[in-house]
């Protein structure tokens, strides 16, 4: 089977199994890299050692992250099981040790700074929308004008990660800003549109955030996604039940949401340091 035929069959099967287009695209890119690595070998003659060498190459030379390595394992397993219709190689029967990284969170004061230094109404609306509902970047860009319900004060997030719909709260402050935004920009389809219409680009949102960060003088190592982290952490600080936060974020597992308990001041500040008992 030739390389392009393998990729075509892989994509076809992934779509049959209702994977999102973003996932299909990412998996196909990862598959191409694997096939490129083993290009001198015939597909049916790839040994366990060849696969192990590729995994080693990804971790040691390419320095793949935990999530990237998970993806590599998934695509090779899928390749053998669903495209080659062969037994999954035993070398893939491994469990990666997941590193624990705590998210960097912006304070409420930091968020206010970012918004105050952003004079462009569209840019300010973008930043406030992401923070106010804990949106992923892709979720913001996919919002349509009809997804905003000012009567029930909800925003409908459609077909997000894992192809799941959910509702998030519509902040009064966001609604006020959206009304001004509608009046000025008059979006036709997507809530946030480019100059010539159509979906706004992710790189543009990242640029908006970087510009605001620079102007604000905030030195923390943060990204657009940190607004989502901040949303979750601030809710936890205010005593919101973690299961509600899980629903708002669209997390499948509670364990994913529980990472915020490690950075929330709500739990940390309840503990008194023994140093406070010292007479200094």
UniProtKB/TrEMBL annotation:
Residues 101-276 form the Tyr recombinase domain. It holds the Pfam family Phage_integrase. Keywords: DNA integration, DNA recombination, DNA-binding. Residues 1-84 form the Core-binding (CB) domain. One of its GO terms (molecular function) is DNA binding. InterPro entries: CB, DNA_brk_join_enz, Integrase-like_cat_sf, Integrase_catalytic, Integrase_recombinase_N, Integrase_SAM-like_N, Tyrosine_recombinase_XerCD. GO terms for biological process: DNA integration; DNA recombination. Gene3D superfamilies: 1.10.150.130, Intergrase catalytic core. This is Tyrosine recombinase XerD. It comes from hydrothermal vent metagenome.
């Amino acid at each position: 089977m030739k390389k392009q035929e393998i990729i075509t069959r892989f994509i076809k099967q992934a779509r049959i199994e209702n994977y999102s287009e973003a996932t299909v695209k990412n998996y196909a890119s990862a598959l191409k890299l694997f096939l490129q690595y083993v290009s001198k070998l015939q597909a049916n003659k790839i040994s366990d050692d060849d696969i192990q060498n590729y995994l080693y190459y990804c971790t040691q030379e390419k320095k793949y992250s935990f999530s990237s390595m998970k993806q590599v394992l998934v695509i090779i397993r899928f390749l053998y099981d669903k495209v080659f219709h062969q037994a999954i190689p035993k070398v893939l029967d491994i469990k990666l040790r997941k590193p624990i990284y705590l998210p960097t969170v912006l304070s409420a004061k930091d968020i206010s700074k970012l918004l105050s230094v952003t004079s462009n109404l569209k840019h300010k609306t973008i930043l406030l929308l992401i923070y106010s509902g804990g949106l992923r970047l892709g979720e913001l860009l996919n919002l349509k004008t009809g997804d905003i319900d000012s009567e029930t004060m909800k925003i409908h997030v459609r077909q997000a990660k894992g192809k799941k719909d959910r509702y998030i709260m519509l902040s009064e402050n966001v609604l006020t800003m959206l009304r001004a935004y509608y009046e000025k920009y008059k979006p036709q389809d997507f809530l946030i549109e480019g100059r010539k219409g159509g979906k706004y680009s992710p790189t543009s949102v990242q640029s908006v955030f970087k510009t605001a960060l620079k102007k604000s003088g905030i030195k923390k190592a943060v990204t657009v996604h940190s607004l989502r982290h901040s949303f979750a952490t601030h809710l936890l600080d205010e005593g919101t039940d973690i299961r509600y936060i899980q629903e708002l974020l669209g997390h499948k597992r509670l364990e994913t949401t529980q990472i915020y308990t490690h950075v929330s001041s709500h739990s940390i500040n309840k503990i008194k340091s023994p140093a406070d008992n010292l007479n200094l």
